[in-house]
Structures are given as C-alpha cells and as structure tokens.
Amino acid sequence: MLRYTAFSTDPGGGNPAGVVLDARGLSDEDMLGIAAEVGYSETAFLIPSSSGERRFDVRYFSPKAEVPFCGHATVASAIALAERSGPGELEFRTPAGTVPVTVAEGRDGSLRATLTSVEPKVEGVAEADVREALAALGWAGDELDAALPPRIAFAGARHLVLAAGTRERLAELEYDFDRLAAFMRRLDLTTVQLVWRASETVFHVRDPFPVGGVVEDPATGAAAAAFGAYARELGLVPEEALLTLHQGEDMGRPGVLTVELRGGDPRVRVSGAGARIPRTPE
After folding, report:
1. What residues form DSSP beta bridges with 194?
2. What's the number of CA atoms in the CB half-sphere (13 Å) around residue 152?
3. How distant is the alpha carbon of residue 151 from its chain centre?
4. Which residues are paired to 91 by β-bridges?
5. Are 4 and 278 in contact, with CB atoms under 8 Å apart?
6. How far is CA 34 from CA 107, 132, 231, in A?
7. Cα(first)–Cα(last) distance of the chain, in Å?
8. Can you say how many angstroms the Cα of residue 4 is from the centroid of all Cα atoms in its chain?
9. pLDDT, tens digit, for every residue of 15-50?
10. Residue 52: other Cβ atoms inside 10 A
11. Between the chain's N and C termini, which has fewer beta carbons within 10 Å?
C-alpha cells in the first residue's frame, strides 16, 4: 500500500491518494475497506494486464463507494509506476473507459504525468437544481458569475460547474453536508466544481465531495478535465488552449493542474507533478 500526492511536488500539497499497484485477489469489500482505512478521497487499485506490462485495469474507491474515474489517483499511480519502471506510456482501463497516461521526467529529475480523458460531454442543468445546489452551499444566486453559466460536465465522472463572482465567495466554503450529498446522489454527481476566473486562462477551483465522505477534495483531476470540456463548449477559451487551475490553497494543500485542449481532439489532457508521501511512525 503506497501513498502519493498528485498535482504537487510537496507531499504536504496537492491531493493525497492511496495506490495499490497489484490488487489481484482483492474483493470489492477488501478495496472499499482499504480505502476507508486510508481515509483519502480516493485510493486506486491496479490489476496488471496480461496483454502488456504497461497496461492496467484500474478501479477507484473513496472511503464510501467506488467512483468511475479519479484523476488525481491516476496521476499518483502513474508516477508510482514510473518510479519503478521508468517514464513513458501507460494505459489505464477504468470503469469510465480507457485512459492513456504519459509520464515524463523533467530537467530537475521530477516526474510529471499527463492523462488523456475519455470523450467528454457537457449538458444543461435545470434552474430548480441550481437553486437547490446554491441553497445547500449557502450561496445566493447573485454571487454567481453570469459569464460562466452552470452546467454539468463529464470527462469520466459527472461534475456540476458553478462559477463564483469573486475570489472571496470561493474562499468561504461552509455548506450543508447531508443536503448537498443528497442532491449530488440524485444527479449522479461526483463533485460540485466551484470556480473563479482569475484571467483568460487561469482559474481557482474547489470541489466539495460529500458523496465520497470528505468535505472537500484538494485537487481534482477528473473535474479539471470536465472543466476543460466546459470551457471549450461555452467558448470561454480557444479550441486550442492551455489552462492553469489552482486548487487546495484554501485548504492549506496548494496544487496546480494544467489542462490542455487540442484542436480536432475532443478529449482533454490534464497534467501534474506528484510525490511520495513518507510513512509516519506508528
């Protein structure tokens, strides 16, 4: 059982994930139990494929349930593998679809992983559902940024995107945990992605994750991919763009996620660094 953080080179930053590099023989109950014991927002369980040494079946569990895809645990797992077998191409077969991952070594020797999402989609959300989400969050309708309308975005998992009008609104996150969780289960949402636009290509984001049993996810790769699709669908950025998402600052776990959009390819690429989290003495 390994512990890595994703989207930061500092073990105290980014989003920590559990990583099990060989989960052969583990039952669903075993995996859920391990994820609950670890206590991170997600733990990845890899099963090596017989068709290639750099191909894996991957499942992701929060402390409460299995999720179809998790970006930060994908980045963490890829970096853990690269530390053992070198950088290069990997293939993760997830419940959401096949996700190619590339790990490259920087000049300073640090490793950086880039995942390519499944084909994303963006859909509208009913006004009544937006009102319920805002009520659970304790936000007023006039605190939203009208230039970034609410949508549900998918790139392996479903996320409701809500844009704050100010950085101050984003920084204050005290919400009704049970009410938001019930709302999210009804719409099959993995997180609610709260965003604030700092510039044309720089955003600050936060992701409440009550359905996973945690108040907030520190750095959310799946939501970052979904947001890239959202930004392109609404014409907020060019067809080809490189976006920077800052997440975790308000939790004291800062991380940086890079989102790349390529012309002619609907998929979204999300990149980030990672670091092993040292074990603390029992």
Report:
1. 162, 206
2. 16
3. 17
4. 55, 100
5. no
6. 36, 33, 36
7. 15
8. 14
9. 999 999 999 999 999 999 999 999 999 999 999 988
10. 10
11. C
Please count the residues of the chain: 282
Which residue carries 């040494």 as its tokens? Answer: 53
Which stretch of DSSP H or E encloses residue 163? strand 158-163
Sign of the dihedral through C-alpha 172, 152, 64, 68: negative
| Calculated CA dihedral for residues 206, 212, 214, 219, nearest 10 degrees | -30
The packing angle between helices 221-233 and 71-85, to 10°, is: 120
Lowest average pLDDT, out of 19-28, 102-111, 143-152, 242-251, goes to 102-111
Q: Which residue has the tokens 């990672």?
A: 274
Angle between helices 177-187 and 127-137 (to 10 degrees): 150
DSSP state of 188: T
Question: Which amino acid would we find at residue 236?
Answer: L
With H, G, I as helix, E, B as strand and everything else as coil, classify residue 166.
coil
pLDDT value at residue 109: 85
Cα 60 to Cα 38: distance, rounded to the nearest angstrom: 13
Listed in sequence order, the DSSP H helices in the chain are: 28-38, 71-85, 127-137, 167-171, 177-187, 221-233
**How high does pLDDT run on average in the chain?**
96
Map tokens 């970034």 to a residue.
148
pLDDT band of 107, cuts 50, 70, 90 = confident
Q: Cα torsion for 166, 171, 172, 177, to the nearest 10°?
A: 120
Both tokens assigned to 14? 């980014």
Q: How many CB atoms lie within 10 A of CB 249?
A: 17
CA 47 to chain centre: 21
Q: Are strands 241-247 and 202-209 parallel, antiparallel or unpaired?
A: parallel
114 neighbors 225 (Cβ within 8 angstroms): no
Query: Which pLDDT band holds residue 280 (cuts at 50, 70, 90)?
Result: low
Q: Give the model's pLDDT for residue 154.
A: 98
pLDDT of residue 51: 75
